[in-house]
Write a structure and sequence with these properties.
Layout lengths: L1 E2 L30 E4 L7 E4 L9 E2 L15 H4 L5 E6 L9 H7 L2 E4 L5 H4 L9 H12 L3 E9 L18 H19 L5 E6 L2 E4 L15 E4 L3 H6 L2 H13 L4 E6 L5 H16 L5 E4 L2 E3 L16 H13 L3 E10 L21 H20 L4 E6 L31 H7 L4
Parallel strand pairs: 5-6, 5-15, 6-7, 7-8, 8-11, 11-12, 12-14, 13-14, 14-15
Antiparallel strand pairs: 1-4, 2-3, 9-10
Bound molecules: (3S,4R)-3-hydroxy-2-oxopiperidin-4-yl beta-D-xylopyranoside.
């Protein structure tokens, strides 16, 4: 560990050099917010600094493998100077024909469904950790970091949570107690193996003037607010606070995240920030998870659709805004659908039925992935983890949700071979 206030900042290529013998402090005039540290024989690191207040800056230098990343063929190794690269796994993929790909290209993992409330506590007090433990242990024994997904969510939560043992609806106090018990027991189980948790997921939606959820069509949007879930109806915003408090107490070493989609919409993000800031002031949150279920291009013909705002610039803005609040940023559920959102997914005449993705789609998907990853790398000092929602196209939730329309959103195809999108994000020099 090198901690120093005597760092020589060079202006060339907005980078700074930490020499073997640290130079005396010299400040140039222009503000810089990222420090690039290079030291022979070590990984290059990008570190965020706030203006020149670098007296508390600490940088950990890790030995590098003296290997040429230009010719690197493993995705996570290629990205070792940037961020961790994760994949969602299910009860099969971590040990079936996908396992080799998973181990080769990823150094982080998350369970796609196996850590949700329905899976871990299907009935009250009946904790089922077997499946999740097997997956987490497989990831850990392959040297991967594990994200925990998810402790409190309106979906995939069993009905008993909302029921009183005496019939009727559970009281607010009971819901909060159940949240605390669930969060505590689950986090204790995975302590020292799961480094970051999505504590609360998808608690924000848009409403029209009649207080109806507008979904993704923003034409009638009047305001953003908390999702009117049973959790919210019964316990209000306290369910979020209770979840984070219980999580912090259960494992003070774990990184705690709020996870959601469409953060590129200014209004939604501003609403999220309104409560995330309060959590941050109480030191109950460490970061935000940006889901990033994206589309091959923004909805050009339907500008009221949320996806019309799904541009690289808007995503870059959301990353910067959250990082400026002192939050870690994880891209938690990345996939890029080959469909745009100009039309409904039920329109079977527009489904792509080929087993393999044709040239045109391959190229468009590759270009979109490249644009996003170029931007992610530019912001590597702000992003710690980029996780794909799956490994290969033969096993993606998007081919089931919302209509059964076949999709091809990942880096590897149905033969488990790399697509052009894979080549596109591997093609950069250090
Ligand atoms: C999805 C899984 O991928 C599906 O297998 C399951 O049927 C439904 O949930 N946002 C989330 C994830 O936070 O938990 C969801 O995962 C995808 C959207």
């Amino acid at each position: 560990m090198v901690t120093s206030e005597r760092i020589f900042l060079c202006r060339d290529e907005s980078s700074a050099l930490l020499s073997d013998a640290l130079h005396k402090s010299t400040h140039s005039q222009d503000a810089m917010d990222q420090l690039k540290v290079t030291k022979k024989g070590f990984y290059t690191k990008l570190v965020d600094i706030s203006s020149y207040k670098i007296e508390n800056l600490s940088i950990t230098l890790q030995d590098s493998i003296p290997e040429d990343t230009v010719h690197e063929t493993s995705l996570h190794k290629k990205y070792r100077n940037y961020f961790h690269i994760g994949a969602a796994i299910d009860g099969n993929s971590y040990r079936d024909s996908h396992a080799a790909l998973w181990k080769e290209h990823f150094n982080a993992a998350v369970c796609e469904n196996e850590m949700k409330w329905t899976a871990l506590q299907p009935s009250e007090g009946n904790f089922q950790f077997g499946q999740a433990n097997a997956m987490v242990n497989a990831a850990r024994s392959n040297g991967m970091l594990v994200r925990g997904h998810v402790l409190v969510w309106f979906d995939q939560t069993p009905d008993w949570v909302f029921q009183s043992p005496y019939g009727g609806q559970a009281s607010k106090q009971l819901i909060l107690e159940r949240i605390r018990t669930h969060v505590t027991r689950v986090m204790q189980e995975f302590k020292d193996r799961v480094y970051a948790w999505d504590v609360v997921n998808e608690a924000v939606v848009g409403y029209d003037a009649n207080n109806q959820d507008v979904g993704e069509d923003l034409g009638t949007l009047a305001r953003w607010g908390y999702r009117n879930s049973k959790l919210y109806q019964i316990a209000g915003e306290d369910h979020i606070l209770e979840a984070f408090k219980a999580a912090r107490e259960a494992d003070p070493d774990a990184k705690l995240f709020y996870n959601d989609f469409w953060n590129y919409l200014d209004g939604k993000r501003e609403f999220i920030i309104s409560f995330v800031k309060k959590l941050k002031e109480q030191e109950l949150i460490d970061g935000v998870g940006l889901q990033c279920h994206l589309n091959i291009s923004p909805a050009k013909e339907k500008l009221s659709n949320q996806s019309a705002y799904q541009t690289v610039d808007n995503l870059e803005k959301e990353i910067k805004v959250y990082a400026a609040l002192g939050l870690d940023v994880h891209i938690t559920e990345l996939d890029i659908s080959i469909y745009t959102r100009d039309y409904t997914s039920d329109d079977q005449s527009r489904w792509y039925m080929g087993y393999d993705l044709n040239e045109d789609y391959q190229n468009r998907l590759a270009a979109r992935y490249k644009d996003f990853f170029d931007m992610f790398r530019r912001n590597a000092g702000k992003i710690q983890n980029v996780t794909f929602w799956g490994i290969a196209d033969d096993n993606t939730w998007l081919s089931e949700f919302p209509s059964g329309r076949p999709d091809h959103p990942l880096l590897f195809d149905k033969h488990l071979k790399p697509k052009r999108a894979f080549d596109a994000i591997m093609n950069f020099d250090r």
